[in-house]
Amino acid sequence: MQIDKASPVAVLLFQGTSDDARNLLVSIASTMVTVIALVLGLTVVALQLASTQFSPRLLRNFLRDIPNQLTLSAFVATFAYSTAGLYTVGIAAGQRIEEYPRLAVSGALMLLFVSMVMLVFFVHHLSHSIQVDLVMKGVETATLKVIGRSFVPGDLGIPIPVVPQGATALPSPASGYIQAFHVGPFVGALAKHDLKALMVPMVGRHVVAGAPIAWVWNVSGAGGRPFAPGASAELRRALAQSVRIGYERTLEQDVAFGIRQLADVASKALSPAINDPYTANQAVDHLGTILAALTLREHGPRAVTDAHGTVRLHIPARDFAYLVDLALGQVRRYGSNEPRVVRALLRVCGDLAWFGETAHRAIMRQYVQTLMNDVARLVAQPADRDPLLEEGAAVLDLFNTRDGTPGAS
Known about the structure:
- Keywords: Membrane, Transmembrane, Transmembrane helix.
- By secondary structure, the protein is α+β, with helices and mostly antiparallel strands.
- Among the domains are: 8-130, no CATH class; 255-300 and 318-402, Serine Threonine Protein Phosphatase 5, Tetratricopeptide repeat (Alpha Horseshoe), CATH 1.25.40.
- 57% of the residues lie in helices and 10% in strands.
- It has 13 helices and ten strands.
- It has helices at residues 18-53, 59-63, 66-85, 102-129, 132-149, 184-192, 231-242, 255-269, 277-294, 320-335, 339-352, 358-378, 382-402; strands spanning 91-92, 95-96, 168-171, 176-181, 195-199, 206-207, 212-218, 243-246, 302-305, 311-315.
- It has a five-stranded mixed beta sheet, covered by helices on one side.
- Helix 1 (18-53) runs parallel beside helix 4 (102-129).
- It is flat and about 90 Å long.
- The N and C termini lie far apart (84 Å).
């Protein structure tokens, strides 16, 4: 686009010769190559630090960070724009010319300034994104979103059916982790052929290609009665549509994966190589928030019905006891000889006494009792041990009071 030199806008455009414009574009392109190398180097350092200090499962949070992606995109766009300009600026039909698109060259200069601003922003953002407080808060927020949006309630009273003799196994189409269940197509196929099924893995579990992922049998007649012709192929197609399998776990429906990330941070912090009990305490606080939200949900397996209300599919799921052990079990085993970690665990357990139902509090009470047994066994110094046992007894009294049995501890 050419702009008349007499136009008021012309004063804002690049004023140099065509050679000056080419030199400018070369300088911008070479500068952006250096900046891109610097940014990628800083990103790799941040990933290594996060993997070593926190957990390798947190790396995806950095790789998927939108500000990082926007910054790299701006740098690459500036480089590509400036390099592309070298094909036309100051050259036509293999000969040097004085006329060139001044607006386009001015755009490259503007992109350079934008990239410099983005570089400052990137350094600021990167330094904050690897702070353990922000990392753990991000995991907590993402896990709470899963609980609020994707958590499917279960029922511990639902019995898992015994697979009858002669039931047909549907193999897993691929190896990987179960990322999500969207079982509508599979339930529809089961209802069409008057069948029942039991899903073998839970969300987050690893499956091997060819291993049974579901067992299917007839509702009427013996379990081994043959399916209708073509039913097996249709069931396999419906199952592939209903079960997402990937090479990694995700937070779409897998609450346990978010808990695992925070538990890993706490376990790393308590390792002899790092020895950072305060970070472990912070992780426990975030885990307490997640467990409080989980106490308000019903856990256990679920039975999925068809359009007529007939149960067609049973799906196993984790119960609250499993999630509590996943969140706080390793912290107890690794940190029960450290008074500050024990106090953090007792504080979280005391907070959870105000949430959930009696069954949830019974699980937490059992956890506190196990923790106190570990304290009595592992903490040798009475000056450290006795106050912890007193705090543990106070937490147990709180649970008993909430359940209407004061003084039963």
